């Protein structure tokens, strides 16, 4: 048996100490320790071992990645469950350790409780750590699992917590709290990732920001009910953790049965939140299934026509979309069954003869002849009580026994754990994809799972439902590998790394008001790279906020993601169509930069302004955005982060986002550097002295391009 395992990658070290009788303790997770041998690792463990005083046992308590009370730990347990009241406290011994190129697998057993445990820990080359556990019952009877939560320690210097809350149309809203003694638990019981999920729970040094401070973060990768926790106690132990939130009776393990927890992803950033993001983005971009072809410009019909489907009207919309450079045309809700509004038809996945007497092929032909892909909206997990499917199979609706849940958006949830319901949905979607030239599915999920049980047994079913959705996505993707899928859930209600293992982008929010989207997209991109975040240009007046914004603001915000358009272009003026075409052309020019480069954010002192950029070795694009009026007139300077300090750059405004107010002379005085000639400065000067911010009207965007000027300094 080994004494230590030291995983190291990309400036990160993770050290496990196996010398105790129980599960291994985490000695270190953070900055790389260097190439240390067993003797030196033992010295690190000795140097950081706590004084044996104040504990609940004579010896200092070894806190493992799955903390146990049997080891003297009286904080939040890693495992909770029982066998009819016994085996409630586990005491695992390590039975084996298997090393791999990037990780370690730890096997443990508790003969008394009749449990076996396998913990997998991997450190990706980008420095992202992930861990999960598999629990197996080895004794007669049933082991009822309450929760399995994995924890990662963080140092005492982490005095602040950052996590997220939100609601429909305002997803992933940040909130900071002090990291004090006690347990902070963020629970999601909505049956999907949730608008107000913790998302990425970060612990950092005081005042950590985009580019400064040391920060550790964890993400619970699960699309159902989940828990993310932070705990600090007076013994000097602090940790972040996560796992699935199990409803009563969801997991009962009979002899030989196993439960596998979700992956908990974690990363350390030595230089603020941007360094944390860079690790997650690098990890996601390295996945074999990560989208690699240029992200096509999408036109979605929802806010253009809603349920008013008409071949002639949609043909004109498709023609306008092609004119501005769109590459994908998505027909949203209303094409099937009795679906003329949102009160009926869900579950009846056949093309409506009332609206489409000749089927979808005439529209698909128009779209493809115009050089665009065709996409289709579906919501396979839901059912309207007013549908042929519900009338034929009321027993397929999730319910807590004989009691139906309250409807939401006139919907109930289809029990996909039921093999017949699962086969029905799979076969209907398979038929649609087989019979039509569909290259894209907008996969929606428009209600929380309330009282979501299996009607035949009455048992809680969120766990089963979540895994059934994963199987359904996996099976459809295997049958139709060329089809891309978007995860939409009333907007941004299902955004996590497990759903993203099966989809090609997420819909960040149903709110496409550019003012609101600045924050939504910034914080969504803390975990998810830009190419996976759907970001659309809306109508001049936002459908969700009634705020009116100029086209340049709407488009200048939307290019910072996977660009789309959700606007009835048939009523746009020729000038608007021409200007929109310029923005689409810019997106096509820079999307390879935006979707492969390093995302950076300035630490701007002025709260009225923000600075976002993407930097590569050969190019950089920045956006200065004003969301309010500044206290300063004119405002101060801001550093351009991420540039090579030893290279010379040509920095200038980037058309069409170079005239943010629609009038170059709006203020009667030009900002000296803000001309086509721009300035030529080193990355070091730009990253320290920076650029003077312009006076902007609120809700305006100025784009800045920085390209190497052919020299070094």
Automatic annotation (TrEMBL):
Keyword tags: Glycosidase, Hydrolase
- Which residues are in the Glycosyl hydrolase family 36 N-terminal domain? 23-253
One family from Pfam that matches here is Glyco_hydro_36N
* Substrates-to-products reaction catalysed: Hydrolysis of terminal, non-reducing alpha-D-galactose residues in alpha-D-galactosides, including galactose oligosaccharides, galactomannans and galactolipids
Q: Does the keyword Hydrolase apply?
A: yes
**Which domain of life does this protein belong to?**
Bacteria
Instruction: Name the Enzyme Commission number(s) assigned to this protein.
Output: 3.2.1.22
Report the leader peptide range: none
- In Swiss-Prot or TrEMBL terms, this protein is called alpha-galactosidase
């Amino acid at each position: 048996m080994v004494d230590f395992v030291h995983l190291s990658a990309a400036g990160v070290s993770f050290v496990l100490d196996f010398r105790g009788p129980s599960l291994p303790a985490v000695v270190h997770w953070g900055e790389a320790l260097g190439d240390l041998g067993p003797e030196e690792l033992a010295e690190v463990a000795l140097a950081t071992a706590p004084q044996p005083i104040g504990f609940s046992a004579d010896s200092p308590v070894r806190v493992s990645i799955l903390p146990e009370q049997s080891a003297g730990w009286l904080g939040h347990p890693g495992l909770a469950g029982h066998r009819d009241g016994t085996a409630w406290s586990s005491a695992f011994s390590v039975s084996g350790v298997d090393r791999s190129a990037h990780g370690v697998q730890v096997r443990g057993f508790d003969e008394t409780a009749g449990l076996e445990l396998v913990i997998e820990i991997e450190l990706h080359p980008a420095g992202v750590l992930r861990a999960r556990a598999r629990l197996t019952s080895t004794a007669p009877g049933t082991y009822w699992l309450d929760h399995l939560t994995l924890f990662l320690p963080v140092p005492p210097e982490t005095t602040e917590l950052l996590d997220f809350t939100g609601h429909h149309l305002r997803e992933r809203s940040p909130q900071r709290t002090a990291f004090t003694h006690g347990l902070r638990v963020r629970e999601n019981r909505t049956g999907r990732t949730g608008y107000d999920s913790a998302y990425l729970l970060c612990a950092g040094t005081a005042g950590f920001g985009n580019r400064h401070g040391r920060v550790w973060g964890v993400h619970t990768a699960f699309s159902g009910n989940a828990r993310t926790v932070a705990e600090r106690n007076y013994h000097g132990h602090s940790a972040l953790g996560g796992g699935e939130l199990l409803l009563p009776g969801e997991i009962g393990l009979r002899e030989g049965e196993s439960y596998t927890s979700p992956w908990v992803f974690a990363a350390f950033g030595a230089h603020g939140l941007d360094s944390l993001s860079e690790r997650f983005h690098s990890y996601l971009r390295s996945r074999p299934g990560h989208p690699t072809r240029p992200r096509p410009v999408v036109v979605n019909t929802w806010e253009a026509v809603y349920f008013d489907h008409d071949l002639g009207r949609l043909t004109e919309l498709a023609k306008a979309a092609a004119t501005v450079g769109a590459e994908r045309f998505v027909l949203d809700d209303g094409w099937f069954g009795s679906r003329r509004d949102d009160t009926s038809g869900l579950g009846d996945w056949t093309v409506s003869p009332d609206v489409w007497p000749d089927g979808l092929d005439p529209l698909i032909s128009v779209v493809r002849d115009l050089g665009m892909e065709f996409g289709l909206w579906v919501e396979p997990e839901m059912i309207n009580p007013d549908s042929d499917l519900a009338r034929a199979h009321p027993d397929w609706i999730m319910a807590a026994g004989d009691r139906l849940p309250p409807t939401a958006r006139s919907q109930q949830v289809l029990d996909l754990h039921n093999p017949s319901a699962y086969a029905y949905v799979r076969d209907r979607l398979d038929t649609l994809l087989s019979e039509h030239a569909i290259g894209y599915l907008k996969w929606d999920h428009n209600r929380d799972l309330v009282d979501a049980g299996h009607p035949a047994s009455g048992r809680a079913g969120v766990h089963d439902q979540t895994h059934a959705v994963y199987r359904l996505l996996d099976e459809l993707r295997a049958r139709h590998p060329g089809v891309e899928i978007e995860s939409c859930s009333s907007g941004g209600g299902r955004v996590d790394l497990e759903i993203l293992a099966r989809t090609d982008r997420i819909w960040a929010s149903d709110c496409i008001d550019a003012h609101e989207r600045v924050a939504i997209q910034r914080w969504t991109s803390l975990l998810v790279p830009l190419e996976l975040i759907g970001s659309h240009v809306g109508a001049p007046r936002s459908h969700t906020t009634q705020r009116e914004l100029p086209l340049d603001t709407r488009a200048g915000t939307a290019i910072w993601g996977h660009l789309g358009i959700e606007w009835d272009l048939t009523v746009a003026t020729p000038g608007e169509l021409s200007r929109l075409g310029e923005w689409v052309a810019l997106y096509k020019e820079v999307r390879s930069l935006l979707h492969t480069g390093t995302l950076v954010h300035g630490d701007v002192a002025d709260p009225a302004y923000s600075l976002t950029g993407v930097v590569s070795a050969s190019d950089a694009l920045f956006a200065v955005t004003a969301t309010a009026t500044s206290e300063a007139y004119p405002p101060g300077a801001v550093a351009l982060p991420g540039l090579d300090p030893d290279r010379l750059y040509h920095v200038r405004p980037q058309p069409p986002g170079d005239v943010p107010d629609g009038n170059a002379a709006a203020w009667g005085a030009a900002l000296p550097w803000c001309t086509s000639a721009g300035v030529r400065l080193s990355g070091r000067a730009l990253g320290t002295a920076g650029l003077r911010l312009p006076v902007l009207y609120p809700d305006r965007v100025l784009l800045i391009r920085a390209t190497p000027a052919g020299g070094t300094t």
